[in-house]
Amino acid sequence: MNQKQNFINELFKFITLLENSWDFIFSQVWLTVKNYQILYLISTWLNTSKSLLGWSYGSKPNMAKKLRFLEENAFITRSIDSNDKRVFRFTLTKKWIESMKIVAPIYEKAISEVFHWISDQDIQIGQSMIEKCLKNFSDHCPE
């Protein structure tokens, strides 16, 4: 196995540990890390069903189910796009903001523990590498 494959395999282990920890953290407000992922994406420019599906790597029925759950539990609202009536746009609600006030201290403590011995410079380098990989992936790999 080459160095790049080893790096990816280590990322898989790291992501699995993060998902398990974050599931516990987000359970404090009745969410999972996958729900948080969708909410985070909505907070960026990815606020349509299609864009969310493309960036979350889920199936269409699974995404619809998660969006319905988030909407029914008042974490998001849905509106029809003013330019294209076939497109739904999602917006975060006050409940989401209030939920993050509960989760934020727990989340911050966990992050501080994970990155305790890692310098800000190393974190910047890691973030830059991930951004380059994401760009290469989106530029060269099929969706």
Describe this structure in words.
By secondary structure, the protein is mainly α. The chain has a single domain, classed as Winged helix-like DNA-binding domain superfamily/Winged helix DNA-binding domain (Arc Repressor Mutant, subunit A). Helix content is 69%, strand content 7%. It has 6 helices and 2 strands. It has helices at residues 3-26, 33-43, 49-56, 60-72, 94-114, 120-140, and strands at 76-80, 88-92. The protein has a two-stranded antiparallel ribbon. Strand 1 (76-80) and strand 2 (88-92) form a beta hairpin. The two termini are 26 Å apart. The mean pLDDT is 88.
Q: Quote the distance from N terminus to C terminus.
A: 26 Å
CATH superfamily: Winged helix-like DNA-binding domain superfamily/Winged helix DNA-binding domain
Q: DSSP helix count?
A: 6
> What is the C-level CATH assignment?
Mainly Alpha
Question: What series of H and E elements makes up the topology?
Answer: HHHHEEHH
| Biggest sheet layout | 2 strands, antiparallel
Give the overall silhouette.
globular
Structural class: mainly alpha
Strand content: 5-15%
Number of strands: 2
Rg over CA atoms, rounded to whole Å, is 17 Å
Helix content: 55-70%
Number of domains: 1
The appropriate CATH architecture is Orthogonal Bundle
Query: Overall pLDDT, averaged?
Result: 88
Q: pLDDT below 50 for ≥5 consecutive residues: which ranges?
A: none
Strand order of the largest sheet: 1-2
**CATH-derived topology:** Arc Repressor Mutant, subunit A
